[in-house]
Structure formats: structure tokens, C-alpha cells
Specification:
The protein has a five-stranded mixed β-barrel. A five-stranded antiparallel beta sheet has the order 8-7-6-9-10, with no helix packed on it. Strands 11-12-13-15-14 form a five-stranded mixed β-barrel. It has four domains: 10-69, OB fold (Dihydrolipoamide Acetyltransferase, E2P) (Beta Barrel), CATH 2.40.50.330; 80-137, OB fold (Dihydrolipoamide Acetyltransferase, E2P), CATH 2.40.50.140; 146-214, Nucleic acid-binding proteins (OB fold (Dihydrolipoamide Acetyltransferase, E2P)), CATH 2.40.50.140; 219-286, Orthogonal Bundle (Arc Repressor Mutant, subunit A), CATH 1.10.10. It has helices at 139-145, 219-235, 249-256, 260-273, and strands at residues 10-20, 23-26, 37-40, 53-60, 66-69, 80-88, 92-95, 103-106, 119-126, 132-135, 157-165, 169-174, 179-183, 197-205, 211-214, 276-278, 284-286. Helix 2 packs across helix 4 (260-273). It is built from four helices and 17 strands. With 288 residues, the protein is α+β, with helices and mostly antiparallel strands. It is elongated. Helix content is 16%, strand content 34%.
């Protein structure tokens, strides 16, 4: 095509020049009908006739010919959406946005590593070349659509998806369009992914209606869980605990997977319940 007005991965308004048995040709405005762009019948969302102005998404078909589709992105330009990653390339990724082919996500517009099949939040924009692209930087847009949390109390549960991650933690948007912050100390040991859906417990409600949440159990539940962990370890080691209150915190973490403070709380709780005893050497043993 000689006319550079029409770009792939862009939205354009074009006039129907002629109809054929397999579709319509859109006027490319080059003065040469051979340059006109095909809008196949399968790519039409409604019947068109000569002279109609139609809004289309332009893309290259497998033969690298410019082709049109009336299936437009489900996200408006400047808007945000929760989309699936279709394909990874060395330059970036392509995401599903409702068009005939994926929309490009440049590496420079990603926040954390992503992979095919992952769902993420993105914003649709027009890049410097006039083509459609998406970015994972949606923090400002999320704050615009967010609502103050209502009808929720500390201790309540909320479900949301991660739209931003920083060194301090992760930001989620809930189903009610509330913003929830998950501090890194309240995260599980397994790494979280952008776009991941999580259900957390509300630990604080800010004046602006934003929430702080935690994925960790309450102290009571954690105490029970840690106590069971200690008993299971002791049962597999002849009824005794090789660790004590003076053990290295890293050693406790490596063996039991809990902090030294949690270890001491759990052991103290088990002592009070009479489930374990402590001998003169300071070693814990399962009560007989």
C-alpha cells in the first residue's frame, strides 16, 4: 500500500467503496482501488453498504496484507481492563483485548515479569507511531474509579486482584472497586503475580476508605497452627524438640518454617495446656 495514513494495530474510520460476495472493500484514499482494504464478511458485526462510514480495527493478516475488522478493542483508549496475556516475545507481550489479534504490551510498560495465560490489569493507549498499545501502569486510573470502602469492618474478608506491586507491597482492586494494600510482611512466602486474585482479611480502614489487608491468619489461628507444627515435629523425633528458646532464629525458620517469636509463643501455649513439658536442660518433650 502506498498510502501511509493507515497503520496496523490502529482504529480508523473508513468508507465502504464496494461490495463483493466475500465482504466489503474500504477506500484507502490512494486513488488506486488495488490499495483498498478488505473488511471480510466474518469481520463484520453488522451489514454494511456502499458509502457507509465504518469504524474498524486494522491489522495484518497471515499474508501480511492490511485487513479490517469491526471488532474493536473492548477497552476504550485511555481506559483499563483485566486481560489475558496471549503471547510473549523478546520485545514484549500481546494481550487479548477483543480484537482480531492481540494488542502489544512493550517490555518498558511492564511492572513485573509476566507469562502466557496470566491475567493482568492494563491501560489502552495510542503510542507515538499512532498504533494501539497497553501499559501495566494503571495506578492513576485505579484511583479515579476507586470507591471508599463501606459496610466492611476490621476482620472482614475482601477479594481483589493485584494491579501494582512495589518494594513495600501489593495494591489490589476489589470487586466493590475498593483499593486494598497488602504489606510485604503480610504476604505469604510464595511469590505473588501481577493480576493474581487474592482474598485477604481487613486489618485497617483508612480515613480515605482504602484498606490494609493481610493474608496471614489471626494470632489465635496462627498459634494453633504453629502448635500443631511443633507437636508434629516432636512426634517424628522421639517425642522431643531439638530446638529451644536459645536456638538461632534462622535455624528455627529453616526447620519449622516459623519465626523464633512464633516458636516461643507456640511452645508457651503448649506448656500452659500441658501438652508438652520442659526438662531441667530446657528441652521440650511431649507430655506422657
Amino acid at each position: 500500500m502506498n498510502n501511509q495514513k493507515w497503520k496496523e494495530n490502529s482504529i480508523a474510520e473508513m468508507t465502504v467503496a464496494r461490495l463483493t460476495s466475500f465482504g466489503a472493500f474500504l477506500n484507502a484514499e490512494t486513488g488506486n482501488s488495488a490499495d483498498d482494504i478488505l473488511l471480510h464478511r466474518d469481520q463484520q458485526t453488522q451489514e454494511v453498504k456502499v458509502g457507509d462510514t465504518v469504524k474498524v480495527f486494522l491489522y495484518h493478516d497471515p499474508h501480511h496484507r492490511m485487513t479490517a475488522s469491526m471488532r474493536l478493542p473492548q477497552i476504550p483508549v485511555g481506559g483499563i481492563g483485566y486481560v489475558e496475556v496471549l503471547l510473549m516475545t523478546r520485545f514484549g507481550a500481546f494481550v487479548e483485548a477483543g480484537t482480531e489479534r492481540g494488542i502489544f504490551l512493550p517490555h518498558t510498560e511492564t511492572i513485573k515479569p509476566i507469562r502466557e495465560g496470566q491475567k493482568i490489569w492494563v491501560k489502552l493507549y495510542i503510542d507515538k507511531t499512532g498504533r494501539l498499545a497497553v501499559t501495566m501502569h494503571v495506578d492513576e486510573e485505579m484511583r479515579k474509579i476507586a470507591r471508599p470502602a463501606r459496610g466492611i469492618k476490621v476482620g472482614g474478608k475482601v477479594t481483589g486482584t493485584i494491579y501494582n506491586m512495589t518494594g513495600e507491597g501489593a495494591f489490589l482492586i476489589t470487586r466493590e472497586k475498593w483499593i486494598a494494600f497488602l504489606h510485604r510482611k503480610d504476604m505469604p512466602q510464595t511469590p505473588l503475580l501481577m493480576g493474581q486474585e487474592l482474598t485477604g482479611r481487613v486489618t485497617f480502614i483508612r480515613e480515605d476508605g482504602h484498606l490494609n489487608i493481610s493474608l496471614r491468619p489471626t494470632k489465635e489461628k496462627a498459634l494453633d497452627s504453629d502448635g500443631i507444627r511443633l507437636l508434629q515435629y516432636m512426634e517424628s523425633h522421639q517425642g522431643r524438640m531439638l530446638l529451644n528458646d536459645k536456638s538461632d532464629p534462622m535455624l528455627i525458620k529453616d526447620i519449622l518454617g516459623i519465626s523464633k517469636a512464633a516458636f516461643k509463643r507456640a511452645a508457651g501455649h503448649l506448656l500452659k495446656e500441658g501438652k508438652i513439658t520442659m526438662d531441667d536442660s530446657g528441652q521440650y518433650r511431649i507430655s506422657k
